[in-house]
Design goal:
With 247 residues, the chain is of the alpha/beta class. It folds into 2 domains: 74 residues, no CATH class; 151 residues, Response regulator (Rossmann fold). The strands form 2 sheets. It has a 6-stranded mixed sheet, sandwiched between helices. Helix 1 links the parallel strand 1 and strand 2.
Length: 247
């Protein structure tokens, strides 16, 4: 089994996987939905193309909590994909609650750059943002928000337990929910049958592979209830998350 944890390996996977048909490949993916023929037949894709739903939910929660009506976003990489999945969806979620909220964005240009990230969070705080949504692969932005006395929402992994008084929550991509199903199919020798129906496994709010699993101490029960009700509305289509790939 080879597990590729970023779609930056997609080109290499396409070139190599067909030569090793007895090897099972699991490709993390973050683009649009794919067809059964998109990847070689020994590849299953775990696709986070619905992550915009989670960012929208985070933006709506932030809009319920902000006191300044100014929110900040620290985005790792420029481009339409990250904008659609993260920053633009967060802004749409905030405007779902209050169209008057201002949302400011900084693009770092790397997944890890502690100095630039901390400087960016400090600038957003100085501009009046009292909540920042951070899409970096380290905690520097969250630490800077804590130092500046503002709240943060961190993308990807749940670390609220480390900062319960300053982190509203984390937009967590819980790959394990889907990985367990793939590994079960492999160990039970039914991969081909499994892949025929699950060549693409989208992360989703419905199975909580996209989730905000923990809330900080500042999040009231009313806001938690609002978040759960909005989650259900997104799942059943009552609320449609717009797909916007430009800022």
């Amino acid at each position: 089994v080879i597990y590729l944890t970023t779609d930056e390996f997609e080109e290499a996977m396409r070139a190599v996987a067909p030569s090793y048909p007895d090897v099972y490949w699991i490709q993390q993916y973050e683009s649009t939905s794919i067809s059964i023929d998109s990847f070689p037949e020994n590849v299953v894709a775990l696709n986070a193309y619905q992550a915009s739903d989670l960012s929208f939910l985070a933006g709506a929660i932030a809009a319920k909590i902000t006191e300044t009506n100014k929110l900040g976003v620290v985005q790792a990489i420029a481009g339409p994909r990250d904008t659609m999945l993260m920053s633009a969806a967060f802004r749409s979620g905030a405007h779902y609650v209050n169209e008057e909220i201002e949302v400011f964005r900084v693009v770092i240009g790397a997944y890890v750059d502690p100095i630039k990230t901390r400087d960016s969070v400090a600038s957003l705080a100085e501009a009046g943002c009292d909540i920042v949504f951070i899409g970096m692969d380290d905690e520097s932005g969250t630490l800077e928000a804590k130092e500046k006395g503002i709240y943060s929402i961190q993308e990807y992994q749940d670390i609220v337990s480390e900062h319960p008084d300053t982190m509203i929550g984390c937009t967590s991509w819980v790959w394990d929910v889907l990985l367990d199903k793939v590994f079960d199919a492999i160990t039970e020798d039914r991969f081909d049958e499994f892949r025929a129906e699950n060549y693409e496994m989208p992360l989703s709010l419905e199975d909580r592979s996209l989730d905000i699993p923990t809330f900080g101490n500042m999040v009231s029960e009313d806001v938690k209830q609002f978040a759960e009700e909005l989650r259900e509305k997104i799942i059943d289509g009552t609320v449609e998350v717009p797909l916007i790939d430009e800022w």
